[in-house]
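Hi, can you check this record?
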Amino acid sequence: MIHPSTERKCRWGILGAANIARRNWLSILLSGNGEVVAVASRNAERAAVWIEKCQAQHPFPVRPDAVGGYQQLLDRSDIDAVYIPLPTGLRKEWVLKAAQAGKHVLCEKPCANSASDLAEMIQACDKAAVQFMDGVMFMHGERLPAMRALLDDRKTIGELRSISSQFSFCADDHFINGGDIRSQAALEPLGCLGDLGWYNVRLSLWAMNWAKPLHVSGLAVRQTNEGVPLDFSGRIIFEGGCVASFYCSFVAHNQQWAVLSGSTGALRLDDFALSFDGPESRLTVSNTNFSIQGCEFRMQSNDTVHSFPEHGGAHASAPDAKLFRRFAALVLSGTRDSQWPDIALLTQRVLDALLKSARHGGATEPV
């Protein structure tokens, strides 16, 4: 049980009663340095019902207020930061208004319909001196620093040559045929590329130390009648020859693996985006041996598993809680970290180029 604390906490407002916001209600609770003060929906009754369900399972010591209308929440003086899980088609408007109201912004991904829109949103946050960050949870886990050390030692993996990943789930017909906003062109025009591919692209950019890719190519394998991607295959080329390839999909079974391959070994994650349930996260280093002994060709496994004490589910050590803990720490300290808006904008630019390529038959596009 989490008990009330006399220490100052980041006071959160949530704009929109989306399903993903339920998870982050809990993340804020588990962060230890944040509290949800208010939740806004299009009407106060809908917000109250949403709060009631969350509060019944994971209650805050003080029940958050239900607010009718997003602007009414932004006008409150008892809100430090807002989490915005609104549909992508609505995010620009409300990020701009949140910045104008002096609220720090944690934004779901994809952050915008286009890089030009996101650049305007980030500029507004800079002008208002508020922090902007996207909601990519794996960026805040314990595995990433360990992976960076393995990649940078130039021995375990060697020179990085390729990055491959898949993030997918198989949605039902109702979802695919417009029953979910992620298949609706007006609300989520990037479809699976924005909802899932954002993670694939982010991991690739992280692995390459945020180097700007030379060019990309993309293919929307399946899409709705309105052109919303349902599954997407992409390739990203970096200077030096490293190739990042990925597949994201609303029509393939649950997968979220990644393999980073180098000249001497490979690093494998089976759950790179959303950590599996359990008390630890893992990564596997594979230094497979191949030998020929006369007529015998031998491939020998040589795997090393690294584990880290962080939960994948509802726990204070989970990357979800760490994301909100890190964001709140910035707010409470009065400092801003420009890395987060910079990498969000780079990610969005790569997605823009991938989608442009797909709409031109897979033609190579610069970033």
In short: The chain is about 35% helix and 30% strand. Residues 163 and 244 are 4 Å apart (CA to CA).
